[in-house]
Amino acid sequence: MSDLPFILFSLVAAVAAIMVVTRAVAVHALLYLVVVLLSLAGVFFALGAPFAAMLEVIIYAGAVMVLFVFVVMMLNLGRSDRDRERHWMAPAVWIGPALLSGLLLIALCTTLRTIPPTAASDTMAPIGPQSVGLLLYGPYVLSVELASFLLLAGLVSAFHIGRNIRGTGTGEP
Amino acid sequence: MSAASPTHALLLATLLFAVGMLGVLARRNLLLMLMSIEIMLNAAALAFIAAGARWHAAQGQVMFLMILSLAAAEAAVGLAIILRLHSAGRPTLDADTGNRLKG
């Protein structure tokens, strides 16, 4: 099992995630988010899931992040937005949320300690795309259909919300 | 015990989930909140992958695919709502002033 890549990718993912939530400029946070997703793809690969790693790179770091970049470009953020963001990120704002998520972290970590360690983790062979595909089009074909319904609903609602966005037409529902 | 064991991956997923929740709670920018939600969804996906590696089952990656489609739909709808709010005359992306959507 590949230890060193796992540790490196985990460290990069954790640090970049912290950088995402503390940046004042949206584009910087977005680029750090791309780093998080790419390093998570590396973590998936180290865990023996190459299919999930490739999908993470192609769909998350590719398609979804392009959508985010497109929206950031359309929003036309400037220097005043950065200053307002710095004003919103005063240190007093972070106390309550940090307490709450620290509590969640402690609770989940104490729960993780009760899990017995894995017996034979050295025998983990990668799970290739073939077994995933056999499951997807075998017992889980209904889930695939439901996911396609979800994507269709997302497409239709994004189109419905986003149309007439400049206020030019009069065709309000 | 190997360092790339599923327990350590679950630890990383926990950390990522906590960081994402910190972002959702502390930030006021809608775009940054959506990014934090993406981090939380990725943490959940990592937990599924780790569980799939623990029991050497492909069902973890099947659930990862479901989370992937959910995240794609959520990002599309959320970004469309942000664009709509922005075009409705809001100067900022403040989440506290989300009452100007008008229908």
Automatic annotation (TrEMBL), chain A:
Superkingdom assignment: Bacteria
Subcellular location: Cell membrane
Entry keywords, A to Z: Cell membrane, Membrane, NAD, Oxidoreductase, Quinone, Translocase, Transmembrane, Transmembrane helix
Transmembrane is among the record's keywords: yes
One cellular component (GO) term of this entry: plasma membrane
Gene Ontology molecular function, alphabetical: NADH dehydrogenase (ubiquinone) activity; oxidoreductase activity; quinone binding
InterPro entries named in the record: NADH_UbQ/plastoQ_OxRdtase_su6, Nuo/plastoQ_OxRdtase_6_NuoJ
Membrane disposition: Multi-pass membrane protein
Reactions that this protein is recorded to catalyse: a quinone + NADH + 5 H(+)(in) = a quinol + NAD(+) + 4 H(+)(out)
Record's keyword annotation contains Transport: no
EC number: 7.1.1.-
Transmembrane segment boundaries: 6-22, 29-51, 57-77, 89-115, 135-156
Family: Belongs to the complex I subunit 6 family.
PANTHER family, sorted: NADH-UBIQUINONE OXIDOREDUCTASE CHAIN 6
UniProt subunit comment: Composed of 13 different subunits. Subunits NuoA, H, J, K, L, M, N constitute the membrane sector of the complex.
NCBIfam families reported in the protein's UniProt record: PRK06638.1-1 (NF005162)
Function: NDH-1 shuttles electrons from NADH, via FMN and iron-sulfur (Fe-S) centers, to quinones in the respiratory chain. Couples the redox reaction to proton translocation (for every two electrons transferred, four hydrogen ions are translocated across the cytoplasmic membrane), and thus conserves the redox energy in a proton gradient.
Record's protein name: NADH-quinone oxidoreductase subunit J
UniProtKB/TrEMBL annotation, chain B:
Organism of derivation: Gluconacetobacter liquefaciens (Acetobacter liquefaciens)
Function statement: NDH-1 shuttles electrons from NADH, via FMN and iron-sulfur (Fe-S) centers, to quinones in the respiratory chain. The immediate electron acceptor for the enzyme in this species is believed to be ubiquinone. Couples the redox reaction to proton translocation (for every two electrons transferred, four hydrogen ions are translocated across the cytoplasmic membrane), and thus conserves the redox energy in a proton gradient.
Bilayer topology term: Multi-pass membrane protein
Name under which the protein is recorded: NADH-quinone oxidoreductase subunit K
Family: Belongs to the complex I subunit 4L family.
Domain of life: Bacteria
Residue stretches spanning the membrane: 6-27, 39-57, 63-83
Gene3D superfamilies: 1.10.287.3510
The EC number(s) this enzyme carries: 7.1.1.-
Gene designation: nuoK
Quaternary structure, from the entry: NDH-1 is composed of 14 different subunits. Subunits NuoA, H, J, K, L, M, N constitute the membrane sector of the complex.
Keywords annotated in UniProt: Cell membrane, Membrane, NAD, Oxidoreductase, Quinone, Translocase, Transmembrane, Transmembrane helix, Transport, Ubiquinone
One annotated GO biological process: ATP synthesis coupled electron transport
Pfam families, alphabetized: Oxidored_q2
GO cellular component: NADH dehydrogenase complex; plasma membrane
PANTHER family: NADH-UBIQUINONE OXIDOREDUCTASE CHAIN 4L, NADH-UBIQUINONE OXIDOREDUCTASE SUBUNIT ND4L
Catalytic activity: a quinone + NADH + 5 H(+)(in) = a quinol + NAD(+) + 4 H(+)(out)
Subcellular location: Cell membrane; Membrane
